[in-house]
Write a structure and sequence with these properties.
Radius of gyration of chain B: 14 Å
Helix content of chain A: under 10%
Structural class of chain B: mainly beta
Largest sheet of chain A: 7 strands, mixed
Largest interface: A-B, 26 and 25 residues
Shape of chain A: globular
Oligomer: heterodimer
Radius of gyration of chain A: 14 Å
Helix content of chain B: under 10%
Number of strands of chain B: 12
Strand content of chain B: over 45%
Largest sheet of chain B: 6 strands, mixed
Structural class of chain A: mainly beta
Order of helices and strands of chain A: EEEEEEEEEEE
Amino acid sequence: DAGVIQSPRHEVTEMGQEVTLRCKPISGHNSLFWYRQTMMRGLELLIYFNNNVPIDDSGMPEDRFSAKMPNASFSTLKIQPSEPRDSAVYFCASRPGRMVSGNTIYFGEGSWLTVV
Amino acid sequence: AQTVTQSQPEMSVQEAETVTLSCTYDTSESDYYLFWYKQPPSRQMILVIRQEAYKQQNATENRFSVNFQKAAKSFSLKISDSQLGDAAMYFCAYRSGRSGGGADGLTFGKGTHLIIQP
């Protein structure tokens, strides 16, 4: 089975530009998570969805960040406008139903964003 | 809020030796899950091992095992017969057994950088 698929793997963009990160969760998983990893703050949960519905977005740093999940197989994380401090690795992760697989969360390979 | 602490920023071990990575956590919950994830230079997060808090038996996956001390809120990872491919960042993570609200995500420690000496 394919794992969590993220794109792009790497992106370099100029400050002020819009950035869209994409994620395809594992088929059949009903929870999807967006995490951000930086040297200073480590791994932070930004937002997660259950059955395509945003449940907790308290980790989204600013209004410049938005996330959508229009269907069970696709999600986006958008930053508009981007700033240099947004440079980080952004991970998408998914999880099957709560009683399946011991609640394990499976991660994508990450999108490495650099804002210059 | 739950917190996860990894007190060893970096550990070094000789190839074929055994190493133990420490993790402590703080929670008022009785139902939860604990995980160790490995992050090699490729940056991918790979699940190493997981433990359900209600299970007294320590989880084991081949060369990887945990020492879960619920009363002490300690969850250490032991890697036996260390191999060069084990070199990576290792993250300890906590997940609540509750559902809803902010309970469904993982809370991570800061990580331990494991170096394998050939």
